[in-house]
Structure formats: C-alpha cells, structure tokens
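Supplementary Text 2. Reproducibility record for the structural model of the 421-residue chain.

All settings were left at their defaults, and a single model was retained for analysis rather than an ensemble. We include the record here because the model underlies the residue-level annotations in Supplementary Table 4.
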Amino acid sequence: MRRTEPEDHGPVQDHGPVRYGPPPPTDGLPVLPELVSVLARAAGRAEGEPVGGGPALLDAARGYWSRRGAPAEPGRTVAGPGGPALLLALTAALGGDVLVPRPCAAWWAPYARLLGRPVFHVATPAECGGVPDPYTLLETVRRVRAEGGDPRLLVLSVADDPTATVAPPEVLHEAVEAAAGEGLHLVSDETWRDTLHAPQETVLVSPAEMLPERVTVVSDLAGSLLPAGWPAAIARFPGSADGDGLHARVLDVLTALDARVAAPVAAAAAYALGEPEPVTARVAAAVRLHARVADALHAAVVAAGGLARPPRAGRHLYADLGPLREALSAHGVGDAQELEDFLSARLGMPAPGGHRFGDDLGALRVRLSTGMLLDGTDEQRTECLTSPTPLELPHVQSALMLLRSVFDDLRDDAQRWEPPR
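Retained model, structure tokens:
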C-alpha cells in the first residue's frame, strides 16, 4: 500500500441532499434578454449539435481566445455540456494520477475518482490559491512515484474558485516550471478569468502562455457568459502532435458518453462568445456588482476576527474562521461540516465548508457566495445592476445586515472567551 494516500472525504461529502456537492457560485441576476431571444429562436431546431461542438460554436470559441492573445487553429478546440464533462474526458484521455491544489474547485476531484484515478492535493503558496506551491508539488510528485504511483495531470486555476484570488505571474511561473520539469500535463481552468474585480490593477497570465505545448485550457461558460442552468464549456488544446492526439482521444470519450451541448444552448453560447455589446456590458456590470458585494463580505468577516484573502475575481469569498474557534465551539461547531451546517442555517443560504473543496475537515473554512445576497424578484435583481448604490437597496441591505449580525455575534462571543489580562 502506498504511504502517500490520495485524500477522500467521501463519507462527509454525502452530507445533505443526495450526493451533495456545492454548485459553482451563481450570479443571482436575471438572464440577459438577448440570450433568451437567441435560445428561443434555436429551440425550434430539430437537429442536434455535433459531439465536440458545431462549426458556429467552435468558430466563436476561437475568436474568444484570439481576442485574449491565444489564437487556436481549427481542430484544436472542443465544446461540451459543462466543464465537468470536459474534465472527465481529459482525465480519461490522459490517464495516470491527478494532482490538484488544496483547496480547489469542488468539481475537479470527483471526476478523477469516478474513473478510479487517485487524487493528490498539494498545498498552495501564501500569496494565492488555485496553483500549487512548487516545492510541495515536486515533493509530492517524487514521493508518489517512489511509492508506485503515476502522476500525469495537474489541474490548476489562475482566477480561482474557491479562494477568489488571482495567482501572480511569478508565482504561477514557478509552479508551471516545476510541473513541466516533472513531465506533467496541465489543465488550466479559466472559468473565472473574465470576472476580475479590478482588471486594470490585476495581471492575469494563462499557463498556456508560459507552457503552450503542455497546457489544455478549459472554460465553463457559466462562469461569466451564460446562466448556471445552461451547461456549456469549451477547451483549447496545445498546438502540437501531442495536442492533436489528446484532442482526438477527448472526442472519443465525449462520443462514447454522447456528451454534446444542447442545440439551443450552443446557439446562445456562440452568441455570448462573440461578445456583442449587450454581453460585454452585462459582464462588466455584473463584475462591478459582485466586486462590491465581495468587498462587503470580506469586511464583515475581517471585522469579526476571521481571516480571508481580499477577493480579486469571481462571486465568492473564502473565509477562515479558525480565530473564532472557541466561540464556534460553544455552538457545537468543531469542524468544517459543522461550520457549514451552522452558517447555512443562520444565514439562510448555502455556505459550503472547506472540506467540499479538498481542504482539511478540521479547518474552520467556508466559501460564501455573493450571488445569494442579491436574491429577490426579477425587478429587484435588475435594479442591482443599474443602481449606483446597490448595497443600499432594501433587499441587499437586509441580507448584508443579517450576515453582519451573525458574524458580529461570533465576534462578541469570542471576546467573552478571551482570558483576562
């Protein structure tokens, strides 16, 4: 038996609804009317979308990447019904053991385990989440190999769920160099790259720019361009013979699964990937809104004595409530699962614990989503996008007041637990 055991929180993961797993953070906003129109027009099509994506969708995907300085030739892109389907196909096609950062997106590890592939979590550096610490990565790879393992795939994300951080280029470069030195293939999950809270102040570099021959990029379009309930994702393969082979094997897996994007969703995805003005305007407005809510979440957690890196992307905040352990223990909270139960009940919204993302069960960490604080009628949610002071809207203010109240109570409890000086 290997001494370096892959980690599996299986029994805990089943807590809650059947096979519970936290979904990606939603935006809490009405669907863009232009997307609804495109989807409705395509709903009358009798023919289905080809496996791997039709010409219109793949052309739009190549245009999307070209505008980001990463052109892709025909035959080097595929589309699938969501990021999980593409990651499953990539994992099956590449074979071997899988490495992921700790913590990581909740949907990464289950698909490797579904295929019977060991998954090894690697600690992240102090600066950010989403990428492994290079020295810990090297140590993990060499130890796994020494014990009979076969690590081949590293999954990472520069703009990260769950930590909402963006990896600095120098930190990413060290991790990519370490992975390349060990012959790993990298899958870069770039679902959240278009949700930078301060794009003029944040430098985002894709691993594919540093190691183009060994990086496959995956983007789940529900991250910023499509509603969460319209599953579609795109992948861009390396421009090499190895990339051609991987592309072919991934198509084989998708074909075996009949994993194709629904034709109406494919039409909407192609429209969104073309980035017409209604889409770019909505994305920009949504990012500004979620950035403000995330800052308010961060301020509430820090004011209560918790820890959290400032959110830089996405629709979420990753909070460490370890400094409030004594106060939480008075409420029967001693691990991440109990913290999830406690906060979900108090806040009236899902608050998945860090163990859902591969973090230590004993660590009191939790992901809080900004979209949940915007929930209301369609009119109220639309008003969030147009108001100059969205945090002062009654339904948003009420949700924030409840959240601050819960954290303020924990702070007060913690102060009562402080020993006298």
